[in-house]
């Protein structure tokens, strides 16, 4: 197998490798747990490598098309089709590649962590198979250029996620959380399916570029937009549809929660993709932009105020995840609100979008890190209650250091990556509307306060007798956390490099609907 | 726990027809309504009938959950394996590398109204069969797991 083969088929291999690995995991598992672990490690490593390779290809050579079932991946339009792409096409532009990078890094770190954290659990064949399928769902959602295909991967994402949430039964509590997640996701999935049907009925096409190029913004299109936005905002955990996140995030195993954050962000990507690529020029920018901004501000504020009163460390972090999603919605929403006004977009709208998009990446890293530390604490102590924990700083030093890094990053303290993206958002949103920017800063301060409390409750104080035999987390878990911690710091030290090389192209690709359409349909 | 002899004898006979009908729906998936999922579900109802007539214990003695689990994994692997072969033949993932090739399922479809030739469709019938194998295993497993929550299955 040579390099050209992999590069040419990277979008397909990106899904095919984890899918094949997931399907074969139950069979490999019969050879013994060592063979299965090696199999899963190899599959995930290969998937991450292909993902990064694909992203590199996209950032250097432009949008990559992959037409499934054709003789040549680039032949989006068959000669005898009359200019309509009839096949399922993956359209990996800079925004998709950006999300692929997030999934590749998080997936790899979580996989390493999982090897140790799940070592004692039973039923690991199914667990690892579902983990790989969750990766497939996330990668498929962010890569596909076909709206029905998007729905299929959304369902894979939801079902694998729900099964993983319920995997450690925990006297039925986890099953309840998993069932809640499954029901909510299914309702959201039906909304999306209905919206797709409305678009398909009008335009007779499922390819996003074709729908975008013929979008009329009729009454039905508006209904479809509402269905898309409400369902995908629910899946990404935005207030007032956030109620499933605390349950699902807190009851899932720590490793899975870190990946659920990425799964939610794939839905957030869906929100942005629908608004910017499917509708864009047809929209009333200010109205839809403000709806997203209000969703964002509500998420930020409600999320952090609910987090302040939590006693369960993972529930608390889950509410913070809701709150941080608000920043992304705020940043990108401001960008959308001024998309039609060229001067305003150039002065601050684009920077706001950069901030929102950069925050997706940063959030996946530091929030993943925080959930992994919480998982490590639960792994060693068996409790998530802040009232029972204490004095762990004596025995779990590395976990404590990783927690500090994550907590400072989420609170937006320099030199961590959370500061870099939040600063972009503060500055640009201030030019748009100072009140929004002030709310964002207040939320950050509350976040810091909340994490100071958590840090004190878990790590500070004298060594407690019931935790006297608690040891540091196993090495693979520490390595998984270390990967995310190093990225958290590196992106905080050199944010300019990251913004210029991957965030700005992603924001440009998202705002440029014409470019997306042209990449599939050719210059029309 | 098994049911009366009349029920068991009837189940024995009907089971054959259910299997035949199920495999017919799977094999004709590319010609008529139906396909892998629907046919696999029909086949699984045959196993459900056996469970109802003889009890799940008798079925598990004969097949066991591992048998159904293997069938599930085998179906999935055949499905994705067929898609992979296209990659190594130089086409894209999921390309129909058997269509019109003259080999198995490789006849070209006659133009215009025709009675339907089973030997067409390329990889599509193979994918249907793979899905059929997967679904018959998975649905039977679901029924068995649901039964394990009851007194009889426990």
TrEMBL record, chain A:
InterPro entries: CPA3_Na-H_Antiporter_D, ND/Mrp_TM. NCBIfam families: PRK08376.1. It holds the Pfam family Proton_antipo_M. Its main location: membrane. The chain crosses the membrane at residues 6-28, 40-68, 88-114, 126-142, 181-203, 223-244, 256-279, 285-309, 321-340, 360-379, 400-419, 431-452, 473-494. It is a multi-pass membrane protein. Keywords: Cell membrane, Membrane, Transmembrane, Transmembrane helix. It is found in: Cell membrane. Residues 145-446 form the NADH:quinone oxidoreductase/Mrp antiporter transmembrane domain. It comes from Methanoculleus frigidifontis. This is NADH:ubiquinone oxidoreductase.
TrEMBL record, chain B:
Residues 6-140 form the Na+/H+ antiporter MnhB subunit-related protein domain. Keywords: Cell membrane, Membrane, Transmembrane, Transmembrane helix. This is Sodium:proton antiporter. It is a multi-pass membrane protein. It is found in: Cell membrane. The chain crosses the membrane at residues 12-31, 37-55, 76-99, 123-147. PANTHER family: NA(+)/H(+) ANTIPORTER SUBUNIT B, NA(+)_H(+) ANTIPORTER SUBUNIT B. The keyword Transmembrane applies. It comes from the Archaea. InterPro entries: CPA3_antiporter_subunitB, MnhB. NCBIfam families: PRK08386.1. Pfam families: MnhB (PF04039).
